[in-house]
Amino acid sequence: MIQVGDTLPAAVLMEYSEVEGEGCSIGPNAVDVAKATAGKTIALFALPGAYTPTCSAKHVPGFVQHFDDFKAAGVDEIWCVSVNDAFVMGAWARDQKTGTKVRMLADGSADFTKATGLTLDLTSRGMGLRSNRYSMLVKDGKVTSLNVEGPGKFEVSDAGTLLAQAKG
Description:
The protein is an alpha+beta fold. The chain has six helices and nine strands, in the order ββαβααβαβαββββα. The strands form two sheets. A seven-stranded mixed sheet has the order 2-1-5-4-3-8-9. Strands 6-7 form a two-stranded antiparallel ribbon. The mean pLDDT is 93.
């Protein structure tokens, strides 16, 4: 499992954009993790699935709500990563009104999730291999804080906890 001090794994996530801008075309666009984190501070959180109850009611809204606080704490971008396809993540972004506050990034084949060692096997519940729920602060591609939830929990990966670490 990835640890504090480790570099994020080399991977490509996908992002769906509905409007062209800043070099992104409409439709799924590749996001090279190493290039996208270089020289930046990223508040990254991951969750088991788009539209799932805790993810939609608590996890994503907390990061949207605290966007300005994260910016004030020196965070350049907030990323939400989930093992879903880019189209689902784009639709969920619209539903959650993330706008330009949270980048909703798809890890469709779970390559990034597998490389971090933070997988969650939900095959018995009909959801296959997913991401565990966690948050991390990443500076220039290196993990500086990591908060991994226990099974079925939402206690340490919330926006408030990561924000306190970003301010720390």
